[in-house]
Amino acid sequence: MRNAGVIVLLAVALLPVAAGLAGLAGVDGNALREVLVAPGVRGALAISVTSGILATLVAVVLAHLLVAAAAGAGWLARLRAGMLPLLALPHLALGIGLVLVLAPSGLLLRLLSPWATGFTQPPGWVTVQDPAGLSLVAGLAIKETAFLVLALLAALAQVPAAGLLRSAQALGYPPRHAWLVAVAPLLARQTRLPVAAVLTYGVTNVDLALALGPRTPPPFAVLVWQWFTSGDLAARELALAGTLVLFAVTLAVLAAGAAFYRAASHAWRAWAATGQRSHLSGLALATPVAALLALLGFAAVAALLLRAVTGPAPFPAVVAPRIGMAVDPALLAAPLATTLALALATAGVALMLTLWAAEALAARSSARAQVAALLFVPLLLPQLAFLFGWQVLLARLRIDGLFVAVLWSHLVFALPYVWGVLAEARGGLDPRLPLVARTLGAGRGTAWWRVTAPLLLRSTLVAGALAMAVSAAVYLPTLFAGAGRVATLATEAAAAIASGNLQEAAAHAALQVVVPLTAFTAAAVASRCVFRDRRGVPG
Amino acid sequence: MDRRTLLQSIALLPLLLASARGGAQDAAARWRRVEAVARGQSVYFNAWGGDSAINRYIAWAAGELDRRHGVRLVHVKVTDIAEAVTRLLAERAAGRAAGGSIDLLWLNGENFASLKEAGLLWGPWVQALPHAPLIDSSNPTTSIDMTLPTAGYEMPWGGARFTLLYDSARVALPPRTPAELRAWIEAHPGRFTYPQPPAFIGTSFLKQLLLLLVDDAAPFAAPPTPVAATQTGPLWAWLDATRPSLWRGGRAFPASGPAQRRLLADGEVDFALAFNPAEASRAIAAGELPATVRGLHFSGGALANSHFLAIPANARAKEGALVVADFLLSPGAQARKADERHWGDPTVLDVARLPPAEAAYFADLATGPATPSPPARLLPEPHPAWVGWLEAAWSRRYLGA
Q1: pTM of the prediction?
Q2: Which of A50, A273, A376, B208 has the fewest CB atoms lying closer than 10 Å?
């Protein structure tokens, strides 16, 4: 059966979600009412929705303008290299790092004190955890701009950008304007799902909100998380009802986002149709803003690493009097090994499933798009909404706490990205190439192995690296599926941060960044080695 | 395999109960049988994994248990014990009555009350442990967990006393009563805060204040009633009065105890709150707090509780869990735990009743300069139902619409 691969792929990706949502069906009506009148709920929902939408808007605009600027100046590769570490940085670690930079006792004011500010003790300013949630928006924007830049770069490979740009420029559009009129709308279309995932994450995240979000009230997802972790079992009913509310709010925001996208692309076409040509020099502002955000991200990493090796220093000193690595390297070895094993297994299985299913849909681009949309469903739902029901399913199957359960949970989050890169690459191959091999007498398998596979190698390597990056970052699903027994760098870093042990947390987070970076570098080096003596092989 | 475990666990309980009644020789023989079955078992110990000193202590215990008893102790690090509670609920929803993923659990108070009420704990088992007679029965918190009798379903592992940490470089005369603390806060706006309830230590701060501020603490030993609720007035008066002078004007609070410790370390506030009297000394030694930080107890007494170990009803390795629990209760293990160089967690044993050789372990314990002398009184915790009541009342007042 030709479609068997597609069925297996979708079952792997969607069974957990189905099980989880089935769990939500049992929500008690009284609990739902109780959630809606709980103290702070209205403010909490407002904060979640506004910070999620604002962060998404900022990230989308910045990512587009950055890619446009980089394409014009020829530094796309450097842009990708710059964004990768930010993408790989765990949300939790970024949150703590930003606090260490921006808080009134943070690195920024320490560098300026007391010589410029006169402060000998931290001022009572409101910086991080501001009531409007702006610091939370900044934190989200840093992560999501990096993510969307990489999504746009992946989409760029599927769009005839160079030709369109040449035509537009021949028609007299200055470069930046040409890009925005001819290429950006196509890229926006290709990246609708990643943007939706960003929107969902913005509204539903707990990690960043705990570190950077306001407190009275906190974002709604934090309230739900507090109910989930309450010792009072009655609060679990509230938590379950809360996830249902979060789910509904997320769907509403996604629907609003889709409507906004349609209106915006309509307006965009109207604007493009006016035929105005301008240099749009005001937009050049995007690069410094993005640079500032990126700088903030790297400063957060630096502050975290500084704290890891020196411990706290009395204000306004920048460096503590005593320096020494307090973390035992032996403690890092086991979680590192587990993380690597999971990352490799996730990449391997995701690639096999995708290649198998993509073969059946090689000539059917609309079916590929439908599969892509289905695979994205887990990323468009609040994780809190389906993790409990999924845990029950794993316990029924008696695989909870086993490596294979965690592997499955990682596959759910890696497959959308692997599919996005690899299935499209498979669809983009010239169908005549394997056909020629067949007419020359090769069997189906031989034709795939000798012709199709080598042509897909570069995309396969990129998709595999992407899968490894996702696997290294996944936290909550690891915890739930692994019954806490599968300790990865992500779970160890979270445990350390929960207790305020910044030294250990920073050490784990640093390694967590290294894993995907190594994967991407290895993929790049490998494809350069393999393709050194070949020309015209698609990327 | 699972059926075997199930049969075993059914068989084990009367065996252990008998050992509590039967003669000493019978008990010893029965315990030897438990040890024999335990040999080779893996015990998955779900315990908060956020403190590297505690993690190292558990790793040490794992080494000893492997060497002495052939039991493999696996520390499953959780960021919040609620994760383990969620897992037990998921396993029950999946119909798993035996062969569960958790063998031993570190918990107290509300979580114990919930799990026991839901029938998810195995027991009673504590009296069957050879070291159980050494438990300090004069400390009520070892057998009453936040007003609920433990009834042998959980074993006291260590003690906790509510402690204020302050930076002596900036706080010359540390306040020792709620009234003095209030005066200090009003004189030093922006320099005091507490973790936001329902963060564990923040809620504990409310309980500590409540017990010191009311004339009669008796109503709080029972679940909340409308009448008892009106008696919490002095607490809210104190919180309302101090709120404008808190860090961030009382509009933001640290998310957790550790988050507030960072504020203290960075000089944003002058106080932090802890449940372990040795926390300041340990944090100073680890370079996580300035050397000028000191701990103190309120002069009216310290909110006190014990933390416990429990075995889930569907645990796979119950014998192994028993052997682990008994080892952790032994004087050697308890003394090492009380040592600030390792953990600094107060013992649950009655040191006066130990044989001289074992009592000597405790005599040698070093105490850091930041550790306060023992509190004047131990104030037992209110009924666990007050936790939810206080958190909800706090949220209604200070969380906004």
Answers
A1: 0.88
A2: A273
